[in-house]
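FAQ

Q: What does a record look like?
A: Structure on top, sequence underneath. For example:
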């Protein structure tokens, strides 16, 4: 088995493209096959080296590797010209100067459903000769058979008058030369498939294909947002880089993307990459649109975060934040964060010092709150030990003595330590800071008017 991922480098790798790459990768790894990476860079204005690097960077982050490539489509111009010349010489293609107006007039004369047929001319664009007889049937593993009657198909333009070939021609020849056995891509490409099959048929007719069978096709369902509309930036992160910057883990993203339109058959949600490879088949891909829901991705990412050891979580947090020695803060935060980006807003004030939140001070550091803080300071200062059980006992004693609710003690303390009402567990936070720093921050809070 040989599959390919063939993005156009016109911007960042979007989530739909990432899912296509993942499905091809899973299919190849499941079958012991090969994944070819081809960069379809024929759009000269938008296909920049920077955009190519964005795609490679996204694939590397997702830990999707490839066995061959990256192959630049523009580097294959000589081979495309050979195929084009063979088809012209063999009568499978012809030159035509027909304009859009000519096509419109043809359809007015013959009917809108009738495919356009041009006349052989000495120069002009190159069209593939289709003819009115027969049909091209796309055999799709996911969607079943789709029949395209030739009488309704235009003779497609496969090269411009200057000889530069068009997308469907280049793709078909590239797939042929690469020995691609399975083409897995989005269903928005379904209308391209009969044109590519016709190119492959013409190539075979002139002896250019060597009798190779056309690939097996599988067109993946569209991605929608939670509202059922086509996935777009309004639904949240739209590209792989945005997911990375939002603090997601590659393994969690792979797991979630794999479930968009594919199911393991037993409703399991958390599947390791090895399990995905073992179970993945095209036959389990649905025809129905799949819904990308970042809320579900956050939940799944949280599961993966909690499965990391403290050491590994700390390493990733340090890389993400650019800070060092986060083991302690990572340990006490892991149950409350779902992404790497959640960590610093939660635990950062413990490390860098309290934030300035006037609303939190006004709500919790009034007369009662300051009284609770003074009692907490005395209790923590007198505690013989300073581990989490000892801190919990000291704070519980303050709550009991004041006949208070827990939050009437915990929240003033939290605001004194972090400046906000949000932090990791209060006992863990106090121990992380240590007795001296905890008492210092309480004193500072009490000294403020």
């Amino acid at each position: 088995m040989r599959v390919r991922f063939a993005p156009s480098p016109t911007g960042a790798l979007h989530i739909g493209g990432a899912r296509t790459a993942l499905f091809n990768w899973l299919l190849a790894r499941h079958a012991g096959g090969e994944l070819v990476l081809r960069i379809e860079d024929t759009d000269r204005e938008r296909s920049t080296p920077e955009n190519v690097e964005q795609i490679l960077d996204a694939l590397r982050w997702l830990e999707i590797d490839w066995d061959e490539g990256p192959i630049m489509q523009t580097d294959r111009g000589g081979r495309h010209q050979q195929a084009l010349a063979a088809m012209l010489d063999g009568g499978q293609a012809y030159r035509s100067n027909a304009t859009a107006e000519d096509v419109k007039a043809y359809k007015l004369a013959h009917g809108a459903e009738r495919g356009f047929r041009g006349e052989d001319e000495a120069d002009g664009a190159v069209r593939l000769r289709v003819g009115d007889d027969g049909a091209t049937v796309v055999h799709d593993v996911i969607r079943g058979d789709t029949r395209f009657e030739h009488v309704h198909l235009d003779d497609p333009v496969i090269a411009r008058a200057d000889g530069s070939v068009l997308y469907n021609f280049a793709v078909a020849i590239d797939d042929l030369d690469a020995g691609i056995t399975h083409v897995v891509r989005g269903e928005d490409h379904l209308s391209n498939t009969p044109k590519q099959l016709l190119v492959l048929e013409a190539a075979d007719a002139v002896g250019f294909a060597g009798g190779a069978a056309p690939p097996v096709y599988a067109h993946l369902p569209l991605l929608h947002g939670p509202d059922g509309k086509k996935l777009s930036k309004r639904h949240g992160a739209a590209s792989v880089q945005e997911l990375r910057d939002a603090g997601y883990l590659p393994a969690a993203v792979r797991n979630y993307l794999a479930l968009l339109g594919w199911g393991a058959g037993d409703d399991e949600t958390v599947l390791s990459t090895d399990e995905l490879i073992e179970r993945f088949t095209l036959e389990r891909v649905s025809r129905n649109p799949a819904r990308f829901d970042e809320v579900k991705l956050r939940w799944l990412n949280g599961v993966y975060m909690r499965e990391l050891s403290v050491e590994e979580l700390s390493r990733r947090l340090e890389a993400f934040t650019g800070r060092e020695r986060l083991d302690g803060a990572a340990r006490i935060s892991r149950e409350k964060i779902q992404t790497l980006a959640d960590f610093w807003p939660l635990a950062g004030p413990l490390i860098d010092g309290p934030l300035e939140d006037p609303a939190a001070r006004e709500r919790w550091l009034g007369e009662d709150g300051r009284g609770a803080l003074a009692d907490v300071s005395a209790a923590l200062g007198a505690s013989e030990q300073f581990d989490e059980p000892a801190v919990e006992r000291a704070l519980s004693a303050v709550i009991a003595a004041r006949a208070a609710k827990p939050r009437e003690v915990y929240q003033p303390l939290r605001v004194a330590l972090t400046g906000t009402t949000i932090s990791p567990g209060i006992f863990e936070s106090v121990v992380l800071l240590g007795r001296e720093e905890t008492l210092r921050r309480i004193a500072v809070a009490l000294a403020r008017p």
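Q: Is there anything notable about this one?
A: The two ends are 73 Å apart (CA to CA).
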